[in-house]
Amino acid sequence: QVQLVESGGGLVQAGGSLRLSCAASGRTFSRYAVGWFRQAPGKERDFVAAISRNGGSTFYADSVKGRFTISRDNAMNTVYLQMNSLKPEDTAVYYCAIQFAPSGSYYYRTATEYDYWGQGTQVTVSS
Hints:
The chain is an all-beta fold. Helices cover 0% and strands 48% of the residues. The protein has no helices and eleven strands. The strands form two sheets. Strands 2, 4, 5, 6, 9, 10 and 11 form a seven-stranded mixed β-sheet that branches. Strands 1-3-8-7 form a four-stranded antiparallel β-sheet, with no helix packed on it. A hairpin with a 6-residue loop joins strand 5 (46-51) and strand 6 (58-60). It is globular, with a radius of gyration of 14 Å.
């Protein structure tokens, strides 16, 4: 059973930065693609970013492209989401999720494709 723990959320002013971390248990983390999603109150869970199991392929939602960067350190079983130029509309609970990937360059972009989820970390951006 894989467990995921997010951290790094908090309160930040608009224009500021945060770095979220997602730490995974287990010894096969390098076989999993990872995604970040977010959910604002009263809204659906939205895709933010994804990264392939080897880190060579990434994909971003249009709303965060150019501001957020997803990366991973397989030796540390950790994925990061660097968030810069934050806006009030980025306020949400951020979740990481992982799913076994058949190849090194594969990633997933929809929530239904992921089997394992973290508990979420709150990000609040004040105006």
